[in-house]
Amino acid sequence: MSFRLFETAPEIYETFKESFVEHNAELTILDNDKLSSKTIDWLVYNAVFNKDEYVKSEARQVIRSLALPLGIRLSSIQGFYEAMGRGECGGFSVPAINIRGMTFDCARAVFKAAMRNHVGPFIFEIAKSEIEYTNQRPLEYTAVILAAAIKEGYRGPVFIQGDHFQVNANKYAEDSFDEIGSLKKLISDAIDAGFYNIDIDASTLVDLTKHKARDQQAPNFMVTAELTRYIRGLPSGDITVSIGGEIGEVGKKNSTEAELRAFMDGYNEELPGGMTGISKMSIQTGTSHGGVPLPNGKIAEVNVDFDTINKLSVVAREDYGLSGVVQHGASTLPDNLFHLFPERGASEVHLATGFQNQIYDHPMFPKELKDKIYTFLGMKFSGEKKEGETKEQFIYKTRKKAFGPFKENFWNLPPKVSDAIRKDLEDRFDMLFKSLKVVNTAGLLEEHIGD
After folding, report:
1. Which of 105, 247, 250, 415 qualifies as a FRET site for 199, CA 20 to 30 Å off?
2. Residues 306-334: b if buried by 16+ CB within 10 A, e if exposed
3. Quick one: pLDDT band at residue 333, thresholds 50, 70, 90?
4. What is the pTM of this model?
5. Contact 152, 111 (CB under 8 A)
6. What are the b/e assignments for 147-170, b being 16+ CB within 10 Å?
7. What element of type H or E holds 164?
8. What does the pLDDT read at residue 295?
């Protein structure tokens, strides 16, 4: 489908006057079929690619305004996670899905699979690093996710999460005020965009040279508490933003009960009385982001410590009222492991690189475009190639960074290609929803989400 980039904001309303109309700063939908069949495709394209910042901003705002009367609302998962912490619901792991490229198509696949399986809790997320290398700022990401919901006819709460809003340890050591200030700016921008779920990651500050767990975790829980206080002071209407913490940096040593208790006890002491704290805790259990590529480009098998997941989830819920623990770096694990996450009490599972791999490795992905991308990566990021690393390993580790520079190429893939990739992604989400046991949980979500 070819799209026109509008030159002025009034063109948006004139072009789609049969789909919706504006009156007193509110939008009324006139024809939902036209809106979802064609109008929303044009709107979201302008929301991403229009060169005029005002027109782009207007297209994004129109999408958000159209979502509301359709019953599509940006929400916090806080109430649901509090219910999990009280033991009122459980037996499932909430999938948190990072989308780096083909975002509109990927999100459509998520919504379609979720609707077919009557899934209640599922989260769209994007990490601080992903925002940068995929060139998807929070306002854009939100607009695309909402547009996908409109396109697929989804109704209900939409959870968007800032994943790994991470403290850079080196920058923090040089100028802690500046590093925390930049993170606060990102958090503010994200919440303004409707990211009502924020994962703070100050685990990079943990000092394992210290002898006691509390001393190791002190900079982590102090910064997390500072950012929690900052978030609670930001305007978010009647919505309580769900906040996550992290005690084990992904890819490093596995987390322990002593570390969890040291963090939570110190963190709670840092918060003013009555202030709502974090709702979940990310831990390290043996995985790494994206998996570890072998010389042939395939992914090495890892040993996930499910006993640690089980033990720390019990402590998190029973002693601290959290929903449980969060597993990162799971999307490249073997399919036969996913059912173990809900069985062992993980409250949330983060999934990212596997979907990226499905796009790049799809048999219908154009070879010419892939060759162009890989040539670009070899020139642009040659300095990142490590000694002894094969070309396949280098490409696997860096191809995520092509989603930003080639965003429009991914978006404008031939329909037969994008349709095939979207269908396969939908099948993947279908499998994950079933394995993580979130099928038929829509009623639970309605019961515990009050916004």
Report:
1. 105
2. bebbbbbbebbbeebbbbbbbbbbbbbbe
3. confident
4. 0.94
5. yes
6. bbbbbbebebbbbbbbbbbbbebe
7. strand 156-166
8. 58
